[in-house]
Write a structure and sequence with these properties.
By secondary structure, the chain is of the alpha+beta class. It is built from eight helices and four strands, in the order βαβαββαααααα.
């Protein structure tokens, strides 16, 4: 039996949920409150870094951290189609490239900007947030250009590992730095929102949306 240790509001956890729902993989849920010392300690016993998501496969005696690795692990233990990492090497490389793109150039700057909102007013890093938002704008331009060929999904015409992470990343980053007048990227985001697996993950996060510090300050727009 698989157990996912996660939180529904985490974009990286949503990335894994999308993959689980895409593959219709049965699993048990353990929602972790990192503010609870006992729950945090229990997660650290599984993965000493203490970050979710973490997948525990009791049957195989395996503990798998990190969203991308979990999705690749699901492909291995549930080989029925459709795989989320294509079997063709070139297609697999494209999916992995875009997976890294969303993690490094969308998730990272988005989280930097959001984290800054939780700091005391006199400790906020305006310069760092401006840098993060500038990187998001560059990422939006790269994404807009890549989608100009009419592909349905970011790595081609099949839904892959990259799209699992793209939805949650775009959902939050679009608040920090809106896509704004990039029609290819906006259409792609609309397709992600309509995907049942992502729509389900987003709906499950709805009760926790008060955690996101909104409205975004006008000076950061």
């Amino acid at each position: 039996m698989l157990t996912l240790h996660y939180h529904p509001f985490s974009s990286y956890c949503q990335k894994v949920l999308v993959a689980l729902y895409e593959r219709d993989v049965p699993f048990e849920r353990n929602i972790v409150d990192l503010g609870d010392p006992e729950q945090k300690a229990a997660l650290e016993r599984l993965w000493p870094i203490g970050k979710f998501p973490v997948l525990r496969d009791k049957t195989r005696g395996a503990t798998v951290p990190e969203s991308s690795l979990i999705i690749l692990y699901l492909d291995r233990i549930h080989p029925e189609p459709p795989p989320l990492l294509p079997s063709d090497p070139d297609a697999a490389m494209a999916a992995q490239l875009w997976d890294r793109f969303f993690d490094h150039y969308v998730e990272t700057p988005m989280q930097k900007a959001v984290a800054d909102r939780f700091r005391p007013e006199d400790r906020r890093d305006r310069y760092g947030v401006d840098e993060a938002r500038a990187l998001l704008r560059r990422a939006w331009d790269v994404l807009e250009g890549a989608l100009a060929d009419g592909r349905d999904w970011v790595a081609g015409n099949s839904f892959t590992l990259a799209d699992c992470g793209a939805g949650p990343a775009l959902f939050y980053a679009n608040i920090v730095e809106p896509l704004a007048s990039r029609p290819n990227a906006e259409a792609y985001y609309a397709r992600l929102l309509a995907r049942p697996s992502f729509a389900r993950a987003i709906e499950e996060a709805r009760p926790y949306r008060h955690f996101l510090p909104l409205p975004w300050p006008g000076s950061y727009r």
